[in-house]
Amino acid sequence: MGTSGKGVRVSFAIALMSAVAMLWGCTGVHLRPDYYDWVSGERTAPAALKAAKQALAEAQAAGAASIDAARYPMAKAKEYIGIAEEEIGERDLAAGEVSAGIARKAAEDAKAIAQRGG
Amino acid sequence: MAQISEAGRVWRLALVSTLVAFIFAGCATTASYRPDIDSMKADLAEAKAGGAETFAPEEYAHAEACLDILTHEATEFHPFADPNARNYIGKCRAAFATLKSSVAASRRAKVPVEAVTPPAAPKPEAAPSAAATPPSTAGAGEAEKAKESPLKDVFFDFDKSVIRADAKQSLDGNVRWLKANPHATIVIEGHCDERGTREYNLALGQRRAKSVHDHLVAAGINARRIRTTSYGKERPFALGHDESAWMWNRRAHFVIP
């Protein structure tokens, strides 16, 4: 009986550990980038998205939408703003902030092209 | 008792095996997207090499962003396959199919243009004056005027108003002609290619005209004999939407009123 009870307890402990390990794996927490500050991210990720949208608006105001050479960066900025919105909505703040950064850079490139000429 | 202990060992083995199976399932799920992701990466690189950023920019940007988010979602651990990655893979396949058809359509559209293009015109660097014939001109009148003008046009690099070293040779010839004709007055027109806004190019054209004006004055020509104006991108000399036309349109043109 004593051995049987011990066997059940050990089995239960292993089952519990397995369940915890599986849940931990499923959350993806262990894959979250260590460099990202997930606490500050609550504030910095939406701010990055706002900055990307502002950069896109500035590029449009500079006339980038009507310049052939700026079509690619403009399209890229719009695509990545969409991704950033989606990722931030799904609480993947790191991916959202990275996407917003890509969008902002693309919008700035488009604005720079609009402010050049041939 | 020994039998119960044996059953416990079997249980333990079964549970550990299940855990390992879950881990492998997660890895296998990620790995199952690998061929698609690799294939899309190759397609994207091929499209980029073919100039898709220029002639299908929206389609290229959409495919690029889709591949990026798919790669991100597919590499997140999930033992039963990430539902987001499953959603994205269908969208990305559609995005790449659109990109491929756009690239193919633009290649087909390009063939007749190349077929009617005259033999390659010499680059402004090689023949910087109006003596060289551009690929196709905006108006026969202007082309004839350019041929008749004793003063040679000066060509510029993209978004620049600095006179190139090769253009200085043309300007030396213009200076000689102006010194030989001391009563002649001239108008220097600054022109640009079609890239950039109208306002920016008007300013750039003015800078080009001013740059040539200053060079002539420095060479001893009276400033009162020279007027400058800018047409920006409004009066292209060569038609076309690529560098073979643009290089002829970034110029300072001399008019003798």
In short:
The complex is a heterodimer of chains A (118) and B (257). Chain A is mainly α and 118 residues long.
Q: Report, as a whole number of angstroms, the end-to-end distance of chain A.
A: 90 Å
Number of DSSP-assigned strands of chain A? 0
Largest sheet composition of chain B: 4 strands, mixed
Low-confidence stretches of chain A: none
Short key terms for the protein model shown above:
heterodimer, A: 118 residues, mainly alpha, 4 helices, B: 257 residues, alpha+beta, 4-stranded mixed β-sheet, 61% helix, rod-shaped
Describe, in plain words, how this protein is organized in 3D:
The complex is a heterodimer of chains A (118) and B (257). In chain A, helix 2 runs antiparallel to helix 3 (71-89). Chain A starts with a helix and ends with a helix. By secondary structure, chain A is mostly helical. Chain A contains 4 helices and no strands. Helix content of chain B is 61%, strand content 8%. Chain B is rod-shaped and about 115 Å long. Chains A and B meet through helix 1, helix 3 and helix 4 of A and helix 1, helix 3 and helix 7 of B.
